[in-house]
Amino acid sequence: MSVVAILPTGCSSLDELLDGGLYTSEVLEIAGGSGVGKTQLCTSIAASIAVSSEQNVNVLYIDTSGGFSCQRLQDMMVARNIPEKAMIAAFQRIQCTKVFDLFDVIQLLENTKQSIDSGSDTFYSALKVVVLDSVTAIVAPVIGGQQTEGHAMMMHLGRALKGLAAEYSIAVLLTNNLVQGSGGEKKPALGRTWLHVPHTRILVSCNKGDGDPSLVVATEQRHVKLIKSSRQPLNIVRMFKIGDQGAYS
């Protein structure tokens, strides 16, 4: 049986919401509108985990929308006054792969399992976090209309992500966009069939949880609401900021 570890995100209010941080063997989804800061938050979490002196943890960052920036990652570490030697070591713990196709992501996840099993690559031996930013970018194009094959592939992806988390004690972090729901209310994309995939789901917004990009103003402050969890009461709201150093309380 794999041991569950809790990996702090580097943001105290987010850790409080998540009951400590990212849990290995589980899938955490960050939902939010376009431009709300989901990629910034994922990058900040990856940086915090990679620079942590308490753990030797590697991060695989799967970028499906071209949003990941090595320069932004470096700027976050510089803003945190991370020593150069520690920064170099942290960069070696983060591997970013740009993949823009659902089938290629599924194949990458399978290759990741094989690399862990082989034990020949030291990076994968210490892999404990996989970020998929974003799941919407690769799934939405194949599930429009009556594309039953697309829905089957979406669920294949969901099973692959949950399997990777459970079998290899990895914390999987996803980002998801918002769509218009009934009554005009925004809700996470990909529908009810995807709802069972994340163990925990949080909603990030700039204005009391609506995640409407038209309401994003020139402020660092974000609201984050817990909307799915088996560990904490739902609808807890905390606030954090995004600045030069990434996410902070």
* H/E topology pattern: EHEEHEHHEHHEHHEEEHEEEE
Average pLDDT score? 91
What share of the residues lie within helices? 25-40%
Largest sheet: 9 strands, mixed
The best one-word shape is globular
Ends distance? 35 Å
The Rg value, from CA coordinates, equals 17 Å
Order of strands in the sheet with most strands: 5-4-6-7-3-10-11-12-13
What's the total helix number? 9
Quickly give the structural class. Answer: alpha/beta
Number of DSSP strand runs: 13
Uncertain segments? 208-218
Indicate the proportion of strand residues: 25-35%
Description:
With 249 residues, the chain is α/β, with parallel strands linked by helices. It is built from 9 helices and 13 strands. The protein has a 9-stranded mixed beta sheet with strand order 5-4-6-7-3-10-11-12-13, sandwiched between helices.
Which keywords apply here?
single chain, 249 residues, alpha/beta, two-stranded antiparallel ribbon, 9 helices, 37% helix, globular
In short:
The protein has 249 residues and is an alpha/beta fold. The chain has helices at residues 12-17, 38-51, 70-79, 84-92, 102-118, 122-125, 135-139, 148-168, 191-195, and strands at 6-7, 22-23, 27-32, 58-63, 94-98, 127-133, 171-176, 178-180, 186-188, 200-205, 221-228, 237-243, 246-248.
